[in-house]
Amino acid sequence: MTKRKTGHDYEISDELWTKIKALLPLPKPKKKAGRPREDDRKIMNGIFYLLRTGCQWKALPRCYGAPSTVHDRFQEWQISGLFEKIWQLGLLDYDDEEGLEWEWQAIDGAMTKAPLSGAGTGANPTDRGKKGTKRSLLTDGKGMPLSAVVDGANRHDKMLVKGTLDAIIIERPFPEDGIQNICMDKGYDFPDIRELVEEYGYSAHIRRRGEENIRIDIPGYRARRWVVERTHSWINRFRRLLIRWEKKIENYLAMIHFACAWITFRAAGLFG
């Protein structure tokens, strides 16, 4: 019999909280006396619970505080850029522990439903024109997320390449420090994309349109683009991201940043 998960199974670890606590912005001073400020860790656990389960804000268990309080704190932290900072720290920790593999990077897009519409959504060409959003992701050679951007589902993958490369959230080593390759599927097979990635210092590895998927039997050869597809799958395990419920694109990106932070910290062996 499968044991049902409880709220505590979705709470962040002590080790991760120690990292996050050091990044928290100072709370805004109160204009008048009132109730004491809700505990930051309890609120962060509530946000993480919502990210993992995909529940509505108003359906958050009361053990995390009033849903309106959790949402207000999420907005406060989103505006301060906290979730992106957590992701940055996670990548730096991972780089110290395991080492980011800059030599081989991969980029790909994934579409999800967006029933509430909002900025960064558009008609989904694969879902009868219903509203959807596209997430473009860049990873290192092991699948660690380096950048993420969001646009409408009707935006072609090639239109998001420059924004994705510009959105790398930590300093990228100069290509002079070593060869950097970027792997892309044949949906990116356009002359302007090949020129663009070359300008960014990459050697492009793009399957050409019409080219069959041929198995390569070369000693030591390994496929490299699949890691970004796996990372998209990891992100979709956070049910708040499997379907986009945030109308504001900034809120949706903050949720993506938090998920990417959890992925990198876990890969660094911080917990779990």
UniProtKB/TrEMBL annotation:
<dbReference type="GO" id="GO:0003677">
    <property type="term" value="F:DNA binding"/>
</dbReference>
<dbReference type="InterPro" id="IPR025161">
    <property type="entry name" value="IS402-like_dom"/>
</dbReference>
<dbReference type="InterPro" id="IPR002559">
    <property type="entry name" value="Transposase_11"/>
</dbReference>
<dbReference type="GO" id="GO:0004803">
    <property type="term" value="F:transposase activity"/>
</dbReference>
<keyword id="KW-1133">Transmembrane helix</keyword>
<dbReference type="Pfam" id="PF01609">
    <property type="entry name" value="DDE_Tnp_1"/>
</dbReference>
<feature type="transmembrane region" description="Helical">
    <location>
        <begin position="249"/>
        <end position="271"/>
    </location>
</feature>
<dbReference type="Pfam" id="PF13340">
    <property type="entry name" value="DUF4096"/>
</dbReference>
<keyword id="KW-0472">Membrane</keyword>
<feature type="domain" description="Transposase IS4-like">
    <location>
        <begin position="106"/>
        <end position="262"/>
    </location>
</feature>
<keyword id="KW-0812">Transmembrane</keyword>
<feature type="region of interest" description="Disordered">
    <location>
        <begin position="116"/>
        <end position="136"/>
    </location>
</feature>
<feature type="domain" description="Insertion element IS402-like">
    <location>
        <begin position="12"/>
        <end position="87"/>
    </location>
</feature>
<protein>
    <submittedName>
        <fullName>Transposase</fullName>
    </submittedName>
</protein>
<dbReference type="GO" id="GO:0006313">
    <property type="term" value="P:DNA transposition"/>
</dbReference>
